[in-house]
Structure formats: C-alpha cells, structure tokens
Amino acid sequence: MAKANKTGKTKLHPTKNPISENVRGSMVELLQTHLATSVDITYQTKQAHWNVKGMNFIAVHELFDDLHEVVEDYVDTIAERLTALGGQAHGTVQAAVENSILDPYPLDLVKSEDHLRRLTNSYAKWSKVVKEGIGEASEAGDDLTEDLLTEVGRGLDKSIYFLESHFQS
C-alpha cells in the first residue's frame, strides 16, 4: 500500500507528462513505496551475500550477488519513472527504513539455508505488493507504471524460483 508523505499530499514538479496531476500523485506515492522496498531488498540481498557460510557456499554467495544486481536495476528504473511523473525520488537508506514494506533483515544469520529462506520471504512479500500495485496502476490508467511493475514482478518471480529451488526436490 502506498504511503503519502508526511503532509498527506505528494508535491509534484512541473512536467509536460500528459497524465493528470491526481493520477501522477497517486502513482508517485505508489512508486515511493516500491523504491523504498527495492532499496531495502537490495541491501538485504547484499547482507546475505557478505555473510553467508555453509554448504554450497560459492554457489549461494554468487546467487546472492546476481540477485543483488537484478534488484539494484529496479531501484534505478522505479526512481526514474517516479521522477518522470514529476515526483522527487526518496531513495536514501533512511527513506527506505521509513517506507519499505519488508520486515528488518536479521543481522545474525550465517547459514546459507537461513539466508535463502529469509530472502525468499522478503522477495515473496514484495512480489505480493507489486502485484497489488499492478492492479492499482491499471485502475488509474497508467499503462507505463503498470508495465514497469509487471517487469519487476516477473523478475521477482524468477528470483523466488532461484531461491526456493534450494529447498524443492
């Protein structure tokens, strides 16, 4: 669910973007939540990459690095769409802490299995909210934000598949 800024109204920069100001404002709020969450999951994934130990270390270590690169691209894509709509991207770590939909990542995880399970949960939680956002963008008539979130959703589904495959047989 998108969170409004502290004033309750999203301030927009002037733009020639043809989407109405009301729709742009609601899409900026929606995208701020996804920007914060993408920043959060980027560093959750890196936290796992830096600290993983155990069986299949190198494979899991490299998987986490690959997943980090994928979600890092989402950060940029989401921020650029948000600013194209006239918004001001809130992409700092502090903004992510305030606006991410994810639970804080435990700092004491070591075993590869624990990191894999925890990241699976984070990716799945964000994926659910992305799918809700796709519907919200569609309902608002913002095809481009809908398409962006669909792309992110496809990527999250693939990442979940890579993570969950360690537990399926």
Automatic annotation (TrEMBL):
Disordered as annotated region, ranges: 1-20
SUPFAM superfamilies: Ferritin-like (SSF47240)
One annotated GO molecular function: oxidoreductase activity, acting on metal ions
InterPro entries: DPS_DNA-bd (IPR002177), DPS_DNA-bd_CS (IPR023188), Ferritin-like (IPR012347), Ferritin-like_SF (IPR009078), Ferritin_DPS_dom (IPR008331)
Residues annotated as domain Ferritin/DPS: 29-168
Comp. bias intervals (Basic residues): 1-14
Ranges in coiled-coil conformation: none
Family in the record: Belongs to the Dps family.
Protein name: DNA starvation/stationary phase protection protein Dps
Organism annotation: Jiella flava
Upper classification of the organism: Bacteria, Pseudomonadati, Pseudomonadota, Alphaproteobacteria, Hyphomicrobiales
